[in-house]
């Protein structure tokens, strides 16, 4: 494929239609930053199927549409087309691939004007070793991405170079189809299991429906018998209840006459009892009135006695109270005299104490003045003493500091002398340095040897990985084939078992492959007959007779291709099998059948397709036999492939262990080298530290000696200053005397203050006691007046009590005479009341006897009336039941009850009583209810689901076969992908090594597959050794070295599977001038070696000068990119011609 032209319309900043012609050689794209150069690369990637808006520097795919400027409106669509030319092997030499996007409508693809899918476009470019993610489309920052990429991500670049992107797409499609098919198979198995469960459920439901219908019929008959029994019982009970009602009416009349006679007797007794009761009540009232009067007199007599006694007691209490109040008046007089004398004494003492207070106050003032003077003198003396002590402490501190400085300086001098003596000689360090350098050289040589061993072991392991991958692919293929065989065997065994044949001849007959349909058509339903004579149909057997007619010419006996019991020999001998029926006449009893199942009998009867189920079973049996024969072979192939995988794994494991041992040796050698280098560095550093330490010790010794001399001078000065200070004894003696004088003055002041306080307290106490005495005197005066008042009052009360006692002295005798008169009257009246009560009670007893007889008559009447009402109610109820049963019979059976036996189908004489018939009816209803919900259309549903099961089994067999085919396809794709990837790896590695040496003008580098033994899962690591440096991974190189190495890898990938177009977007930006020249030279060589057309986006003048033609991208109008071109090759020719 060759890409000839790129057209853009409304794509990003290319608002106007623009065309970029892509010619052979190097085409440069130049222009200032931000003018839209990178949009050309993004347009190529977009038309090739790029689906990520983020990778196109957008937030959504609609962002690729021209957004408009200040002067131009935005567009509603963007369209990019790319014109390609293919070789002569394709029918269509030129392909114009167009991608168009409209706002809010998504993208659409066309190839030569036909709508296609994005997947189709991706496959077209993938088959041409290019595409939206081709390593030949190097965008800005791609070099950095290659450098920072993980090894697994770099493998994707290798896959592009190997041209297996299309294989990945196809494998992904196959895996998706496999997963979908397996999911469909699993769902189908679940559906089959569910349908089997439903079929079982429907069989149970069909049986339940049959039982339901039978019970419903029995229930209808039982209901008719029950209604008939109830109607019959209701009619008999109604007649009986009417007779009982008539007898009860006569009894009611008799009881009513008896009740009326008893009521007349009761009325007479009630009137007589009323008269007697009124007389008794009047007698009782008179007796009660007399008793009340007697009780009132006796109460008055008792109250009078109590009042006379109270008056005597009151007179005695008043006399005692007058005596007590007189004593209280005497006590008050004595207390008043005592308190008066005490008050006079207190007033005299208060006057004396108040006259002594001024003298005490004057003495206290003098003592306080003397105390203040003593305190001032003492404070002045203490201040002088504190100054002397402070000066002494300062001098002592200065002397101690000077002495400590002298000691510290002497200690530092001694320490430095010991440190200088302990530095030692540098000879051992020199010897250690020389030994470390020798060990380092030996370790480097060992590391080089171990690295070579690792490289050799890795190559062996890689080869083992390829062998193991191939063996695993073969194992997967054979396992898939074995699984398909076993799955088909299980499906066939299940299908054969589900259509079990029992003793039918179908179970004992087999046909050669291809003749199953002919056999089924020839025998038809006769295959269902048995081989013994126990059933309705059977094969008894018949021997072939010499006179049996021969088959038509060209027809062979069906028995030639059939293995069947002897009972069928004569029948099969008279059935001919042909490929095509030519209509030859047949003898009587003969049949002719074709291999596709067309049957013609001797009598002209023709049938097509009969016995399809039997033919299917025979075909399945033959297939099952063939699969059982093939299964051991498939299992042996799986076992052989498994042994091959094990062998390859063992070889790869041995190579891996060898590589690991080499890596351990390499690591040990590198560790030894690092340790030796560290030892050498440590020895060198120790020598440098020793020299530095010696110089430092000398300098410090001089500095410490000067400090010691200065400290000794300072110590002598401090000693002189301390000796010049006074000792402080005179000041201490003065302070002691002043302290004693101040203390004496303070004691005098305290004593005077105490005396002053005592005098004040004594005066206050005396005043308080004087006030209390006066208050107490007032209280005694008040109590004396109150006692005199109470004595006068009690004298008046005593005189009133004596007068009342004299007045009541004659009243008791008068009351006693009245009481005796009322006692006699009360006795007479009580006797008359008792006689009246006795007569009343006799009348009440007679009335109760009459009322008892009346009640008994009423009860009898009520009983017979109740009996009559019950009989009438029963008669009405039973008549209503009879009518109700007639109505129910009419509703349920559309006939009156007498006709129920004939309509419902039972004998009237066999009907028992209603309770027994009700019990039978309820039992049948309960039996039907215990069935629960019943599906009455279960038989129909069962037939439908059994048909679905048969169709699903066929679909499952087809899906199983599809899974086997897909697994084989995936295995083939994996094998092809591994082989092509390993082949591409070898080619890329060779190109990479050559290009690395070219770009670096020396050195060496190689690629390695790491992290997995499967090439399709491994990562791609880059190891490089620029001239003069050691071998290391890409990430440990400098920035420029990393960029050149990444360019070498990209070009190596490109040369392995050259793409029709290569776009390099500012790849030369990180290179210096020297590397730019090598880079441009490499581009020239590659453009000559391949048919690829190059687009180089650059800002470098050197690179521009090496281009064959230049396209300039300008932005004359802000926001609008335009293309201008210059053919540098043509210009050079013109210049040469001039």
Any overview of this molecule?
- The protein is α+β, with helices and mostly antiparallel strands.
- It has 18 helices and 22 strands.
- It has helices at 37-47, 118-127, 142-148, 151-162, 165-422, 427-498, 516-523, 569-573, 612-723, 729-807, 811-893, 900-905, 914-930, 938-1000, 1039-1056, 1073-1089, 1101-1105, 1128-1137; strands at 2-9, 18-21, 25-30, 77-85, 94-102, 106-111, 114-116, 137-138, 510-511, 556-557, 562-563, 575-578, 591-594, 598-601, 606-608, 1004-1010, 1019-1025, 1032-1033, 1061-1065, 1093-1097, 1109-1114, 1122-1126.
- The strands form five sheets. The chain has a six-stranded antiparallel beta sheet with strand order 2-1-4-5-6-7. Strands 8-19-20-3-21-22 form a six-stranded mixed beta sheet. It has a five-stranded mixed beta sheet with strand order 10-12-13-14-15.
- The chain is flat, with a radius of gyration of 70 Å.
Please identify the structural class as seen in this structure: alpha+beta
Q: Whole-number average pLDDT? A: 78
Shape: flat
Radius of gyration: 70 Å
Task: Count up the helices.
Answer: 18
Give the low-confidence spans: none
> How much helix, percentage-wise, in residues?
55-70%
Give, in spatial order, the strands making up the sheet with the most strands: 2-1-4-5-6-7
How much strand? 5-15%
Structure summary, number of beta strands: 22
Intertermini distance: 38 Å
